[in-house]
Amino acid sequence: MTEPPAGPTGTAPPAGDRQAIDSTVAHSARVHDYWLGGKDNYAADRAAGDAVIAAYPGIVASVRANRAFLARVVRFLAAEAGIRQFLDIGTGIPAANNTHEVAQSVAKDCRVVYVDYDPVVLAHARALLTSSPEGATDYLDADLRDPGTILAGAARTLDFSRPVAVMLIAIMHLIVDADDPYGIVATLLAAVPPGSYLVLSQVASDIQAEQMAEAAKRYNRLAHETQRHRTHDEVARLFDGLDLLDPGVVPVQKWRPRTPAESRARSAMWGGVALKS
Ligand SMILES: C[S@@+](CC[C@H](N)C(=O)[O-])C[C@H]1O[C@@H](n2cnc3c(N)ncnc32)[C@H](O)[C@@H]1O
Asked: The whole model's pTM is what?
């Protein structure tokens, strides 16, 4: 990518001066885009992405398996659990199967609020604001470490007296312990009524442990955000107080795969879905 993309239209708020695009250091949204084969990344992102690939060659398969997890869970929530509202935090640069596309393919009246703090994601928000007329999408330029602002902004589009799926897909490994990941999840879940769901995936420290430790070391040397990989137990604790759905916290490809090929995929990511009862 040589030029920052054009700014968004629709209901996306202006970027303000909270964060400008910095192409000199890797950012997770752009590195993730690189691994997914996208074009919205800079040399610094590709260098960090390649450093991770060198330590853990399975990373590309892992991010693909995670996107497939996202699509399966959204389809399940819309089709089988009757969920019509989604709060997707850490959206990333639009890719295949964005949350509103999957949800509205099941039920056109689904409402989706996307949240990310990366200015490149903001610049692409137009692609996320393509709701069916019966539903709605919105985009918030906000930081997960400030969940109060996210909840206030999302209330413009979502009705918090009705169930909401809170989605934290491949973002919690970017929240270090000092930023209170458990408190952030608890604050978000306290704001939604019974019948709501938490969907969460994050990079594992105890799958391919040696490779993942080396990958984190290399990434953290080159990137804007610090990765904090977590064990199965640490991830399971993020669901405390909720009812985990079968099969529990599992490698993302093992969460209700639809095909043998999906199940055979490899990842170093834990994922799960839980109900607030
Ligand atoms: C690895 S990508 C995941 C994208 C998408 N959820 C997926 O799974 O395909 C992580 C995203 O989280 C965003 N992110 C990281 N830390 C954040 C924070 N504190 N607040 C908001 N977004 C954040 C990054 O900008 C990036 O777009």
From this structure: 0.93
